[in-house]
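Predict structure. Chain length: 409.
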Amino acid sequence: MTGEPLPERAGETTAEQPWPVRLLSRKIAAYVARMSPVWVEGQIVQLSRRPGAGTAFLTLRDADVDMSLPVKIAARDLPDVSEGTRVVVHAKPDFYLKNGALSLHAREVRAVGLGELLARIEHLKRVLAAEGLFSPERKVPLPFLPACVGLVCGRESKAEHDVVVNARERWPGVRFAIREVAVQGVGTVAQVSQAIAELDADPEVEVIVVARGGGSVEDLLPFSNEQLVRAAAACRTPLVSAIGHETDTPLLDLVADYRASTPTDAARRVVPDVAEERRGVLLARQRLRASVVGRLQSEQAVLAAFRSRPVLADPTTMVTSRATDVARLLTALRHATTTRLERSTAALESQRGHLRALSPLATLERGYAVLRTGSGAVVRDPDDVTAGDVLDARVAGGHVTVEVREPRP
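Prediction complete.
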């Protein structure tokens, strides 16, 4: 150490001019002393309150992650709380120069009531619902027969036993990827969230079950934590929540793709019952066999009916019977045609005689003639012609040209 004055600022220190520990401690203490009192929430994990002592000591731990701070408070200001109680503390940070320990000097401690916790969860529920995290459209169907099931549960817990045993009773070939984590108290949120993310990243895992065997409302609070709920919402693998009993509904149940009332219910949902499936296959085979046999019998009956017909017993029967009909119809056609022709001929002759009687030719045959001028006009009066006119005379046998010498009245 030189006799030179110490640097004023931390950035001005060097290896040749360092701060002594006491100076750094005093500066830290001075900085901490300038901090304002703060309200902080956590859970009491250690409590030391000795009879007759004026000061009580406790450790305040974060409710979701493994972080804690020591707290001291006047014994008279500490309410009737116990380890595990969730509290809010009004305290001022305090730095102890002798050992460099940072603690909180509490002035007031308030226990967080169950009603307040439930109110917070209800508020968070409304916020997440408004974001669409609980929407039915987000939920995906569970696979029918997953080869590998991811299981997040407590260490050697009954929930793990219920899921594994019941699932393997239903389908012995199912495999499990198990992540044993804390499912109560500090660390639950971080460990469960991490386990879900790990299983979601495993391509062999086809469905994930988060299981816990119920508990008090306080025990289930981590499963309504926003961080955990958002981790479940981000999971792409179908997720089953089997946290509480039927009366418990943590927010994880709402964001999961399927809510199981118990771990046993989750096991029944994620894998089918092999015995039931075999019965279904057997019934399907029986129905199929009965359908095929019935169809064959029906077709055999139709075939037998066709074979029993005379035309199949003697194929010439059809031709023989039709030949008789053809001959009969041919005779009838000939008779009808002859009769029709005879009647038509007689009618034609009658009409011909009638026309002949009415024809002008019949008159001509009696010696009459029809005279026409050169213009074709019929001569009906002697005044119609003059001497020298050449007329055409139509007689029964043909035409004769005549010349008028002198018309006479």
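Summary: The chain is about 40% helix and 20% strand.
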